[in-house]
Amino acid sequence: MMAFSWQRAVFLSLAAAMLVYADMKLDCGPDSVTVVWTEGRSQADLSLFRLGSCFPTSFSATQAVFRVDFNDCNFRRLVTGDYLMYSNDLTYGSSDSKSPSFTHPVVCAFARPKDWYPMIYDPVFSTVGVGHLVFHIALMNDDFSGPAESTTFALGSFIPIMASVSQKTHQPLLLLLEECVAATTPELQPDSLVYPIIANKGCLVDSRMSGSKFEPRQKSSELKLSLQAFRFGLGQEVFIHCKLVAWDPNGLDRTKKACYYVKEHGWELLDNYAYSTLCDCCDSDCKSRRTRSIESGTHGVSQKAVLGPLIITDETA
């Protein structure tokens, strides 16, 4: 999961601790870290040091100092076993052969608080389009009338998930799930093992091999998914990572849609069966024939969300 060996990782208690990596001193606090690089040879240009995306907080002729929060500098957070770990890289970039470029791992790991979990119900994310939009995604009970009473699901049972967007003064928008994957970590890393649920710009690929389906809409701003519990991550904590999109209801195309596979019928478009040809690309590559930019805010906005942890169990085992 990490670019460096576990032997180089240092596991720390919640109390601040000090680690020395050759010329680097690492002081891990509960919410922040101090990294000090002392240049004994006085050859390196200390202004060229970076901690992730951060410049030094201060530097002199012999020291570069970073005093930063874990929410800054692109720190990576990983929950593993009994530890909550933050990692980053201290890098030095130079074209001078006398002081070549190098990278040092920066790792702070704490005993995982027993009551620490990412938000289970209704994690809220906000973004601004033409007005203010608030996105929601949550585990629901069987009839979608309220939050789930349990986050444990038997293999083969259905996991009800509802996503929505509160539109307030915004023009009416259609809520879509562009992509969803399951993982066993709350943070996705480049080498994370994932189970694809929705892919290819709104295709419920899991429905190809299961009973998963989108439920009929009651509101354009809501999308209900009945996801059949899978074997991936069986018995472990599972997190569902999704990209939610609020889109122009009149702007559906091959890249903005909600499609699911119906046995004996093939791919169907949730919002208008007559236009199910938009789903024909679900078995290949869905590319738009029109040029639209979601980041521009002209037709919609998007937001990433993480739902979990939930646990899938095999009651027959």
Automatic annotation (TrEMBL):
Residues 1-22 form the signal peptide. Keywords: Disulfide bond, Signal. GO terms for molecular function: acrosin binding. The keyword Hydrolase does not apply. GO terms for cellular component: extracellular matrix. InterPro entries: ZP-C (IPR055355), ZP-C_dom (IPR042235), ZP-N (IPR055356), ZP_dom (IPR001507). GO terms for biological process: binding of sperm to zona pellucida; egg coat formation; positive regulation of acrosome reaction. Residues 27-266 form the ZP domain. Gene3D superfamilies: Zona pellucida, ZP-C domain (2.60.40.4100), Zona pellucida, ZP-N domain (2.60.40.3210). This is ZP domain-containing protein. It comes from Gasterosteus aculeatus aculeatus. The lineage of its organism: Eukaryota, Metazoa, Chordata, Craniata, Vertebrata.
